[in-house]
Amino acid sequence: MQQRLRASQLFLIVLLAICAMWVRSYRRADLIAFLTPSGRIQAAASLSGSLVLVGTSIVVDSEHSLSLQWESTSPAFATRQASKFIGSDFVNHELGGFAIVSGSPPLPGEPAGRWVLVQIPYWFAAILCIVATIGYGWHPWVHQQRRKRGLCVHCGYDLRESGTRCPECGTSESNSLD
Ligand SMILES: [Zn+2]
Questions:
Q1: Which terminal residue of the chain has fewer beta carbons within 10 Å of its beta carbon, N or C?
Q2: CA of 168 to the centre of ligand 1 (A)
Q3: Which residues surround ligand 1, an ion (CB under 5 A)?
């Protein structure tokens, strides 16, 4: 029960962080890029109400040694840069705020490889976190409320008269402290 409560609290913190990033994403575009051990560049961006994950098979040569790079720009500039990178030769599956886009770098002289971009709207991430927060937190909360009011944590039977073992479902107070 304690673990469920902790999971619930963790998702609540993640939810608050997502909401903060969501608001920020309309004012600032944030990009984090990093290289895998094999030198393939990967990125994640927060832009105009969406989280964008970019996976690539593009091997950046050793002179571009970047382990982790963070960049913050205006959303308009980030969108222009992204459209240069995406070019015109790509496959786009889009539904609502969701998108899966894949293609090859269009610029001559760029390292060869493919990229896949997944766009997830912040509202969706927020809903997942709300569901997880309530899902993990509901039972601990109900148990806590019942315990406070002297009710059986399992079935809600009033235990104030009948001591520690519930006459209704047989749950004892010691069992219920899970
Ligand atoms: Zn009971």
A1: C
A2: 5
A3: 152, 154-155, 157, 166, 168-169, 171
**Could you tell me the distance, in angstroms and rounded to a whole number, from the CA of residue 165 to the centre of ligand 1?**
8
pLDDT tens-digit profile of 73-92? 999 999 898 888 777 778 88
From the CA of 176, how far away is ligand 1's center (Å)?
10
Does residue 161 sit within a domain? no
Which CA distances in Å does 50 have to 11, 55, 81, 120, 133?
19, 16, 16, 6, 21
Q: Is residue 170 part of a domain?
A: no
pTM above 0.85, yes or no: no
Q: Is the pLDDT of residue 176 over 50?
A: no
CA 131 – ligand 1 centroid, Å: 27
Count of domains for the chain: 1
Distance 117 CA to ligand 1 centre (A): 52
Provide the Cα torsion 70, 50, 52, 11; round to 10°: 80
- Report d(CA 60, CA 43) in Å as an integer: 13
Establish if 145 belongs to a structural domain: no
Print the domain residue range for 30. 2-126
